[in-house]
Design a protein that fits this description.
five-stranded mixed sheet, 2 domains, D-Maltodextrin-Binding Protein, domain 2, alpha/beta, globular, about 35% helix, about 325 residues, seven-stranded mixed sheet, 10 helices
Length: about 325
């Protein structure tokens, strides 16, 4: 699916249909404002995307309204842990990506995606990889050739035990090469290491790519099926002969004990929010595509992703489930 052509799949929330005269019986949510927890700092990709979705939601006049709350620390685990422990009454939601799986599989936390009730997948962001200014390769083929001939010599930045770590491992496995992976706390630290030639390879977000390509960092590839409209000069991996697509997938979750009717209510409301043209345009500008999936489909995606990443973790010896 193209990173540049948003796809919206809407489903009816039948559990909300009441029998009395065909009226719509909404569940009671005991708050006027619900916490929409982003487990990362303000100004990052997850934060900006959550605010776009929350603003579109709030413009529809729903109650409770959504208020984005940043709970930072432990690579996203602190915020996720707080949502997991929250009262499952619909007043606390989580906006998160695959970091839940990475933290669980590497033993950093003792819970996985099934500690939450998936509400809806919202958007996807294709992975973009960059090389440092003096890296001995300029494109994906060059990276493949150099790393094949110099196994373990390319220093690659990742936040250890996070989704960026597993995405880097996925790239390593897809190319059949070996990187020397160096740990950094977050995206800003990884980009700084790239800019200073401390490492030669790293994943970058859309905003960093627009800021540093092509003068300060080398664009290796975007791992989507088409080029980005906001980064039209960055070739896809597929164009370079490597049939690889890698996405960061974000969505909304509730604590696991949340009632089905509360999850269904939010599912329907998130779907309507993602029809907002301003929200769609804003997400595209950030290098994302709207990809709504209902709660059941989103849960199935989590289960499949968990199985794939567990195999990766076992294969390379970092499977440390508590």
């Amino acid at each position: 699916m193209s990173c540049c052509n948003p796809v919206l799949t809407l489903t009816a929330s039948a559990v909300l249909a009441a029998l009395a005269g065909g009226a719509f019986a909404e569940p009671e949510i005991p708050c006027r404002t619900a916490r929409f927890v982003v487990p990362y700092g303000a100004g990052g990709g997850s934060d900006l995307q959550a605010r776009v979705i929350a603003d579109a939601y709030n413009r529809l006049g729903y109650e409770p309204q959504l208020q984005v709350i940043n709970i930072t620390g432990q690579g996203g685990n602190k915020g996720a842990s707080e949502v997991r422990a929250a009262d499952p009454d619909g007043c606390t939601l989580l906006f998160q990506h695959e970091a839940i799986l990475a933290s669980y599989l590497t033993g950093r936390v003792d819970f996985s995606w099934d500690a939450f009730k998936p509400v809806a997948m919202t958007n996807v962001e294709p992975a973009i990889f960059a090389a440092s200014p003096n890296a001995p390769f300029d494109d994906l083929d060059g990276l493949f050739s150099y790393t094949r001939d110099h196994p373990g010599e390319v220093l690659a930045a990742a936040s250890m035990g996070s989704n960026t770590h597993f995405i880097l491992l996925q790239l390593q496995n897809e190319l059949g090469v070996t990187f020397n992976i160096i740990g950094y706390e977050g995206g800003r630290e990884r980009v700084t290491a790239l800019l200073s030639d401390t490492v030669q390879l790293g994943q970058v977000g859309e905003s960093d790519a627009k800021q540093y390509f092509p003068d300060q960092l080398k664009a290796l590839a975007i791992f989507a099926d088409t080029r980005s409209t906001t980064l039209p000069d960055v070739p896809t991996a597929i164009e370079q002969g490597h049939d690889i697509e890698i996405y960061v997938t974000r969505g909304v979750l509730l604590p696991a004990g949340a009632p089905d009717e509360v999850a269904a209510l939010y599912e329907e409301r998130i779907a309507k929010s993602l029809e907002d043209p301003a929200a769609i345009e804003a997400l595209i500008r950030m290098g994302n595509a709207v990809r709504f999936r209902d709660g059941a489909t989103y849960a199935a995606w989590w289960a499949d992703q968990a199985q794939q990443w567990e195999q990766v973790a076992r294969d390379i010896g970092i499977y440390m489930v508590q």
